[in-house]
Design goal:
205 residues; alpha+beta; 2 domains; 3-stranded antiparallel beta sheet; 5 helices; elongated
């Protein structure tokens, strides 16, 4: 993924007798698809309360909400007369896109496993996770001090993981147990990066 960045670039004057004013645009315009292709990431979700905006200016000073950005644009006035005019917008608006379309989040894929309980009893891959996934998830839940245990190792019928680095990590909370693998699958059920939040009270959900 590349950090999205866009700076004004003064284009060369086209070697044509006539051309549209869009040929002189300082910024590249994006669609949701071209933004993802350029930066390997989703553009922010569309905000219907704002106007569609297909360009962004990473040089705008967004350090203060009162800052503005000033541009020269070709537009028409109330009488329909076209000309070069001044556009003044909040700097934070200048730095932001607002692209229509649906945000498509990458599907969360759970790798298969050959891990088995006993000789022939396979286990569900969704119950597995890496310790490197389990610890950050506990922090995300606000449960950093809670102990993680490997259910597959503590059972009377242990899991033989083979070369699978994942384990059946789980934790106990207010009388219930929660599997890290299942919680990760729940977190990403609408795709990796899809908005959502945890509710941690008497239960974790």
């Amino acid at each position: 993924m590349t950090i999205p960045h866009s700076e004004p670039v003064i284009p060369s004057q086209p070697a044509q007798p006539s051309y549209g004013f869009s040929e002189l645009a300082l910024f590249k315009n994006y669609t949701r698809e071209s933004f993802r292709a350029a930066f390997g990431a989703q553009a922010p979700a569309f905000d219907p309360a704002r106007l569609i905006k297909t360009w962004f200016d990473s040089t705008a000073d967004t350090s203060d909400g009162a800052n503005v950005a000033v541009y020269k644009v070709v537009s028409s006035d109330a009488r329909g007369q076209w000309g070069i005019r001044q556009l003044v917008i909040p700097a934070r608006e200048a730095a932001a896109l607002n692209l229509p379309g649906v945000v498509c989040y990458p599907v969360y894929v759970i790798a298969p496993t050959k891990a088995a309980r006993g000789v022939v009893t396979g286990i569900w891959p969704v119950t597995l996770s890496l310790l490197a996934e389990a610890q950050p998830l506990l922090a995300e839940l606000g449960l950093t001090g809670v102990e993680l245990k490997d259910e597959g190792a503590g059972s009377s019928l242990p899991v033989f993981y083979g070369d699978d680095p994942r384990r059946q990590w789980f934790f106990a909370y207010k009388g219930s147990t929660y599997g890290i693998g299942e919680l990760l699958a729940s977190k990403h059920r609408n795709g990796i990066g899809a908005p959502g939040h945890w509710s941690v009270g008497d239960t974790v959900e």
